[in-house]
Amino acid sequence: MNNMFEGKTILITGGTGSFGKRITERLLTEHNPAKVIILSRDELKQSEMAQKFTDSRIRFFIGDVRDEQRLKRAFSNVDMVIHAAALKQVPAAEYNPDECIKTNINGAMNVINACIDTGVDKVVALSTDKAALPCNLYGATKLASDKLFTAANNMAGKDGTRFSVVRYGNVVGSRGSVVPFFEQLIADGATELPITDTRMTRFWITLDQGIDLVFEAFARMYGGEIFVRKIPSVTITDLAEAIAPGMPHKIVGIRPGEKMHELMCPEDSAHHTLEFKDHFVIMPTTNNWDSTVNYQIDRKGEEGKLVEENFEYKSSSNPDFLTVEEIRTMSGIKPMPVLKIA
Description:
Blueprint: E1 9-13, H1 18-30, E2 35-40, H2 43-52, E3 58-62, H3 68-74, E4 80-83, H4 90-95, H5 97-118, E5 122-126, H6 137-156, E6 162-167, E7 170-171, H7 178-187, E8 193-195, E9 201-205, H8 207-220, E10 226-229, E11 233-235, H9 236-243, E12 249-251, E13 263-265, E14 273-275, E15 279-282, E16 305-306, E17 313-314, H10 324-331
Parallel strand pairs: 1-2, 1-4, 2-3, 4-5, 5-6, 6-10, 7-9, 8-12
Antiparallel strand pairs: 9-11, 10-15, 13-17, 14-15, 14-16
């Protein structure tokens, strides 16, 4: 896989976030790209990132995925695009639906058009477990985005840009994650942690595991696949216990647009879902660009098989649940001292 990025120019939309910074670091240290381009709309974050990354192969490009003409300029002579730009906060999307649609759906279409028009070779778009049977606007926009990217292969034609999607769950410690939120509450002297619902479960993945999935997607993809990594689940109460042992919980109820449990492979997609050793592949529902593709054997030669009828990959029924100690180990969490009230 190391040779795949050798001498290539790779552009990351939304590249100043936690994902973008880490994948840039790994591309520059583990691989040998000709250039890594960071495209985002926040000049301050780009300035801060430029102070950390002094490698001569990195470039910064101010732009917004809402601006198709700007994307075409940015994508000129780019070989691979990693599309990470999105509005991701569930409550914010519920209160600002038009803004979420402009970035997550219209922006996805702009990325697709710009990639096809400039001759980008491969594109991997980041998705979320919230896109599977969505109950909130953020998930609905990401489902629409997923459909756009998987269908874009038909627009590009047999010899055009290839598009695929990676879908995973909550990233440990990422911006907006519950872990830094809980830790900040405790640091500020909280004596109880707000829990939405004691029954709640979530998929759990580290940032590096998410990046590994992206790297593997580039190596495995034909175009049109949604790649889903097999990852463990956690309960929200075990997560709270891992961070603050013995601290009381306050039940605050589910926020607008939240699910009790997350889903990555819905039952309705079982008839076109393949299981591999460490991941699932949801095959495209249309494949007009090349009817000869056999998704059961990927480009790395790995072989998958169709899942059983009525199969679903859900955080509550996942066979792999982390214990409190495993959560700490995987997440790098050090239990915080709990303030005792006399």
